[in-house]
Amino acid sequence: MTMHTRRHSHFKGLKVINFRFSSKVLQNEVDEAFLNIHVQELEQRLNVTLGPDEYFSIGIQVNRVTRNSQGSKASVPYTESSVKMSRKELKIGKWVKVNVTNMVAEFFRLPRENLAIVVRVQDSKNRMSLVVPHPSSESNNALMPYIEVSLRDNSHKRTRRTIGMDCTENSKEVRCCRYPLAVNFEEFGWDWIIAPKQYDANYCSGECPYSFLQKYPHTHIVHLAAPQGSGGPCCAPRRMSSISMLYFDHDLNIIYGTIPGMVVESCGCS
């Protein structure tokens, strides 16, 4: 996933680069993050002649701009690195990748409106001026700094947390669990259903022991109070979803509709 800059401001004479991430993206965890900047020679300060195997050593410092307890801006150094660049690379410009995983991960944990950073790029011996394009450079939009973010896939972890347990036919789990069930309409003789002919319905099965009290307290409290007509905790669907179907109605018209309550998404004790 790639996040581009939106706007810029200034902090102590240096241009601040602001990155904005959508709320949906911020809900994830950061696996890796790299800042990509295009470094190019602006002007040579001294007439420097390099041998064919010699390179300039370019230092890169990335600072995050934050606000302190008094509300004023502060620049916090996050990472420093250096790269070797040839005279030709400096002339035409070169993309440099800087690892900013920790900085971006921290921002995701406590996000603000923008992730604001300042980038300092310097020749180690101060022999030339170097430039990194900023959002104000209208003619260099393709050379703007950007951040590549790889997000950690937490879908499985979130699913397990929100929908309870999933089991298979070979599972030895005795507690309330969701099991897979494929339903074939043709086996029922339901030839009036055009599509789908088969779908995954799932079902709930298992016991509801008192170890589930913490998860389903009301169910067990009602059972202990034993009001007239109440039964014990029962493993049943907690959340259902719909499927889309194509079928014939009584007048043999073809109907396309969404049928609710056809798929068990989670099971629980009720």
TrEMBL record:
Record-level GO cellular component terms: extracellular space
Main subcellular localisation: secreted
Organism (species): Parnassius mnemosyne
PROSITE patterns: TGF_BETA_1, TGF_BETA_2
Gene Ontology molecular function, alphabetical: cytokine activity; growth factor activity
SUPFAM superfamilies in alphabetical order: Cystine-knot cytokines
Gene3D superfamilies (alphabetical): 2.60.120.970, Cystine-knot cytokines
Record-stated family: Belongs to the TGF-beta family.
The TGF-beta family profile domain, residue ranges: 158-270
Lineage: Eukaryota, Metazoa, Ecdysozoa, Arthropoda, Hexapoda
Location within or outside the cell: Secreted
Transmembrane feature ranges: none
Keyword tags: Cleavage on pair of basic residues, Disulfide bond, Growth factor, Secreted, Signal
Pfam families in alphabetical order: TGF_beta
Name listed for the protein in its UniProt record: TGF-beta family profile domain-containing protein
